C-alpha cells in the first residue's frame, strides 16, 4: 500500500484523477485506451499477458530506501520486460520526472511547438515587426500561436499590436515562477490579440530571472503549434534560456554595410 499511496500523491500533484485497479481490467478497452498506465512492481505479475501497448510505466521503490544514483534493481527490469513497459521509474529518485509525465497527460501534451526566435542584426532592423507578422500569419492559418516578447527594453509587443490595454498577464507577473507551469493555464492567462496569445513586457522596470523564463517557455512549447520569440540584442541569462529553446533562429539584417557589420557581431 505504501507504493500505491506514493502514486496517488504524485497523481494529485500533477492534477490527475487515477483509476486504480488491482489487475488488468476484463474490458480490454480500459487497458488499451488509458492515456498512461502506471504499474507498481508489486502488481506486475497480474499484468503478464496483457496486450502490449505504449505508455506503460513500471514503478518501484528502492528496496533499502537508498540505492545508488542511476541504479535500477534487476528485478524491476525483469518485470518491465515481462509486461512490455516502456520505462522503469524508481521512487523517490524519479518522482519529479513521473509527475511531469502524468501532467503531460493531464494537459494533453503532444508534439512540442515549433519555436522560432527573431533577432535584429542592428537596432531598428524590423525584428519585432517580423516576429509579429510571423505570429499573426501562423494564427491566421489556424495554428495555435503564442508570441513572446523577449526584449524588456522594447516597449512591449502589446503596444505594437494595439493591445496595451488588453487584460491579461505580462512578464512581471511571472517573476516568481519556478518549476513546471501548466501550459493551459499559461495560455488562458495571457491577452488574446489578433487571434493569438501574447506574452509581452509592460512598461515596468522588472527583472525576470532565467528560471522563470525557462518555466514559461517550456510550458508554451508543450501546448504545441507555434511559439514566436522576439529576442533582444543584449544577451543575459534570460536571453540564453530563450535561445536554448529555439528551434529556428532568424537574424534580420537590413541591406546596408553598417547593418551587416553589426549583425556579424551579434551572430558571433
Which properties best describe this structure?
alpha/beta, Rossmann fold, 2 domains, 3-stranded parallel sheet, 10 helices, 9 strands
Plain-language structure description:
The structure is a single chain. This protein is an alpha/beta fold. The protein folds into two domains: 2-107, Rossmann fold (3-Layer(aba) Sandwich); 114-267, P-loop containing nucleotide triphosphate hydrolases (Rossmann fold, 3-Layer(aba) Sandwich). It has ten helices and nine strands. The strands form two sheets. Strands 6-7-5-8-4-9 form a six-stranded mixed β-sheet, sandwiched between helices. The longest helix has 14 residues, at 127-140. The protein is elongated, with a radius of gyration of 23 Å. It starts with a helix and ends with a helix. The model has no long low-confidence stretch (mean pLDDT 89).
Summarize the structure.
The protein is α/β, with parallel strands linked by helices.
Q: What is the global morphology? A: elongated
Count of discrete alpha- or pi-helical segments spanning 4 or more residues: 10
Number of strands: 9
Radius of gyration over C-alpha positions, nearest whole angstrom? 23 Å
The CATH homologous superfamily of the largest domain corresponds to P-loop containing nucleotide triphosphate hydrolases
CATH class of the largest domain: Alpha Beta
Helix and strand pattern: HHEEHEHEHEHHEEHEHEH
Largest sheet: 6 strands, mixed
CATH architecture of the largest domain: 3-Layer(aba) Sandwich
